[in-house]
Amino acid sequence: MSNSLKIALGSIVVGLVVLGLKTLAWRLTGSVALLSDALESIVNVATALAALVAIKVAQRPADQGHPYGHHKAEFLSAVLEGVLIIVAALLILREAWHAFQNPRLIQDAGLGMAINAGAGALNAVWCWVLIRQGRRLRSPALVADGKHLLSDVISSAGVLLGVGLAVATGWAVLDPALAMLVGVNILWSGWKVMTASLSGLLDEAVPEKTLAVIREIISDKASGALEAHDLRTRHAGAVTFIDFHLVVDGQTTVSDAHDICDRVEASLKARLPDAQITIHVEPEHKAKHSGVLVI
């Protein structure tokens, strides 16, 4: 089992534990703000399941029907996560509105808040693991899951502060008002996760910093060639796709041109291990005198 799958399984376990703790906190207190926190944890479990399935599909090797692999399954999972987060936010806003119309005092606040704080601390630790490992493994599904948990940690801290104020002041209306704020924050979080994932589905180019590295490697390692133009990049899950046209002198042999391509590919893969590279060799009359000039 890959590291990505192990982490995805861990997310499900952590999500179920946190859901149980937050549900217990809500049952003890009757707080609609704590209920909103528990509702978001249901989405955490659902998105962890979606991430597990997506990562498993993304790791399938390329086949006749999917010659470029199944890497985009992770982006689909992240979009689904964004949709589920938005649905959870709408449910929270609905519950908050009903409670706002009929506010009630919170019961057993101390114990409920302590349990909720413990669940939030567990989420904070796991959120750090997901984002750190997701970036290391270049897994959009894990990173999206981690960013969602980060919003959950922030909203949980706000919930605890608000519930504490409601108990201290006796203003019962603070509880549903805070739940509404949590719902709006989660709604924004879901939108950001979904739009970030759509960029991958739409074949957005790699970040400018990565593109600069690719250009530098081509310029430095393609000695014997004249220029490289029409450089295109995209990313899908852990894989970066790179293709460009490499212009060589018309007298260059096929073997020599092949050696240049091998040298460039090896250097690119040393920096981007999961890169898939396509190089189209052209004679000098095809030069555009633009793009990447070879040193």
Automatic annotation (TrEMBL):
The lineage of its organism: Bacteria, Pseudomonadati, Pseudomonadota, Alphaproteobacteria, Rhodobacterales. It comes from Paracoccus hibiscisoli. One of its GO terms (molecular function) is ferrous iron transmembrane transporter activity. It holds the Pfam family Cation_efflux. Belongs to the cation diffusion facilitator (CDF) transporter (TC 2.A.4) family. GO terms for cellular component: plasma membrane. The keyword Hydrolase does not apply. It is found in: Cell membrane. Keywords: Cell membrane, Membrane, Transmembrane, Transmembrane helix, Transport. Residues 207-284 form the Cation efflux protein cytoplasmic domain. NCBIfam families: CDF. The chain crosses the membrane at residues 7-26, 38-55, 75-93, 113-131, 152-174. Residues 11-202 form the Cation efflux protein transmembrane domain. One of its GO terms (biological process) is intracellular zinc ion homeostasis. It is a multi-pass membrane protein. This is Protein p34. Its main location: membrane. The keyword Transmembrane helix applies.
